[in-house]
Specification:
By secondary structure, the chain is α+β, with helices and mostly antiparallel strands. The protein is about 35% helix and about 15% strand. Strand 10 and strand 11 form a beta hairpin. It is globular, with a radius of gyration of 23 Å. The termini are far apart. The structure holds 6-diazenyl-5-OXO-L-norleucine (DON). The site of 6-diazenyl-5-OXO-L-norleucine has 13 residues, from loops.
Length: about 575
Amino acid sequence: MKNYFYLIVLLLFIQCKKEPIKEISKKETPTKGVITKNAMVVCAREEASKIGINIMKKGGNAFDAMIATDLALAVAYPFAGNIGGGGFLVYRTKDGKVGALDYREKAPLAAHHDFYLDKDKNVIPQKSTLGANAIGIPGTVAGLFKVHKKFGTIPFKDLIQPAINLAKKGVVVTKKQAKALNKYKVNFQKANNRVIFLDKDWKEGDIIKYPKFAATLERIRDNGRDEFYKGKTADILVSYIKDLGGVITKEDLEKYEAKWRKPISFKYKDATIHSMSLPSSGGICMAQILKSIEPFNIGQYKHNSTKYVQLLTEAERRAYADRAHFLGDSDFVDVAIDSLISSEYLNNRMKNFSWTKANTSKEISHGKLNNIESDETTHYSIVDQFGNAIAVTTTLNGAYGSKVYVKDGGFFLNNEMDDFSVKPGIPNSYGLVGSEANAVAPEKRMLSSMSPTIVTQNGKLKMVLGSPGGSTIITSVLQNILNVIEYDMGMQEAVSKPRFHHQWLPDNVKFEPSFKLNFKDLEQIGYKIDQSNSPVIGKIDAILVLPNGSLEGGADPRGDDKASGF
Ligand code: DON
């Protein structure tokens, strides 16, 4: 009897070993999303999407809703929502004008090429990821005010007030959030000289109030943009960072500017895709990948089949190799964007693709250009009742950023400096390598993968989407575009589908555990499969305009994400 018991325990153990990562269950993979007639917000927390929707119900437009949603996420989702980080916005107005806003962080004036290296030119562990020296100059507050100046129709004070109220009332901790808070406690302790979030073991249903953050938001409400960059909040921030041994000064904050940019716009079949331009690599890489596969008519292959995976993997390999070599902040380096996304160049890059044998990342490095021309995250999508559309991806970089929590200001600061290539060839926290184009320099913006994206078809709005996930953002977004355009899926179905990812280096193809495929077929022709360490690839929040003009939300079941609308 006793032996029998041990045998069962052993069998259970073997079973558990075989399936170490929890798959998303059927119940958690909805295929039909929320459908509304007029307006919609899809984001990481229901509190924030409801706040955005209320603004539009009161007559505000998508830009007003964006500001209110963003600030509400800073309260309800401090994992990535922020005022201490930065982001990108891509918009399309009701009359078809597209544009983009870059409120990405910048390197401090005191940062320099070898800022993260010791005297022997070795990378100093964790300097670019944890603590005060990982922080880039935050851009979020500047970005929100810039949006408001150009497009806002409701006073800023009314857009920030719901976030202030939420911070005072408190936010209910979800199961996923409780897990994250408990997990990162050790790092909060390492990064701060004052203890925060450590006083208890968090569990679902707890309520966190943020009185200090409410006070900061009230000062921003009363004093405007300059409160963050020149006022009391700036003083609090700079003195706290100094205490922790960081280099950010008041001058750094005063010099920060968000910038309007031209999005990367390109055709894929009969769709036009607008995505983020440098300093995000998102638009360029997505254009490269989709234009590389266009001649192969990928829709003829079964969705997520071996051939589908293989073709996308090879296009991704080439695009990420180019990313590592050519891309950086276009205010600092010349990037031949038009050449990099031209069909001529990309068809040439795909010439050595073969269905019978994998290429290797050793043999595929960056391409050759003939001429050089003179350039833990969260995403939300909004469409308003007037027809304006906005895609925003904003981040602190890692979960809770640098883990530095400005105690007297009540908010986290980013660790975006790790998105620079701190030393050529040394991978960052997403395994991405880079070159001189993305080396650290004072006031330079670090290269991003964030890809807020808007798709139109026949001159009409089709889809608004984006994702967190570091290097996997680009490939997650483009798989969702293909799910809809090539495989005719609805928005929620597209978002719920399992995903995969390849980024040149490391030379393996990552799959979500729920991805069903006979991996042997890929392995036989030379692909290395990695299912070990990627329980979740991306977290897409998207909106699809249905043929009858209604909106379908796709809220990613991988998180607590929710669509709200009316
Ligand atoms: O800008 C970037 O590409 C990264 N800092 C994004 C980080 C991110 O998506 C984290 N989310 N999981």
